[in-house]
Amino acid sequence: MNKKYGFVDYPNKQSKFEDRLEWVDDRIQDVYNVFNRLWFDRRKQKVRVRIDRWDTWGMDHTLAHIVIPMLKQLKETKHGAPNVDLEDVPEHLRPTKKEQRAYEKDGSTDDKFFQRWDWVMDEMIFAFESKLTDWESEFYSGDVDVYFEKIPGEAGMSEMKRGPKDTFKVDHEGMKVYQARISNGFRLFGKYYEGLWD
To answer: What are the angstrom distances between the C-alpha of 54 and each of 17, 58, 145?
Structure first.
């Protein structure tokens, strides 16, 4: 094989056994090429999509069910990674100045090149998974105690008031941070959409 494909220089003379072996190898390759043309080259990806009216009522939620397993499979089976802009990842995943200069000079990748893409994919997965959960409830605490009091002069109108046992609180700052991470995950999905290949 080394001789045939030129990895190592061999003398031109070869034994009869090597001649026969090369002939068998060529015939196997011929059969494989015919099979490949007849079977794989003619196959087309079959895509059937059925969309019901209710699928678009919450399309962001519906798409999450499809996108999550695809992103997870891609992350596990990928063979490469696109170039990730450094401003899209945390500091600890960025190359040193020396590594960055080497990349700009000759395209050399640093040790964190693939880790950056994994991080971006994890953020996309996080965003889509959050769409399928009630993540806001993680930021609620306490018990709700409310009652309704009639508004004087307004027939049939009342307003909600907090009762004495009401301890309900919402961590608005925590929710903002969490929502910012979700929004960033969707931003990354849009930005690197054309990098979602294997």
So the answer is: 68, 8, 35
